[in-house]
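During the reporting period, our protein records have gained a structure token line. One record among many is quoted in full directly below:
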Amino acid sequence: MAWILFLVLVAIVLGIIGVATHGLLYLLFIGILVLLLALALGGARFRKNGRANR
């Protein structure tokens, strides 16, 4: 769980730097990819634990 939160934090930081710095827009796209990766990992972990099943 800590890795997923860390990846989300990294994605937010990369996105902010990518938007704020002129010429580093590619960091925004890397941040988006990292965020999607973190969401996929979190969803897979959530589903694997069986918490979604009642």
The CA atoms of residues 13 and 48 lie 29 Å apart. Helices lie at 2-20, 25-49.
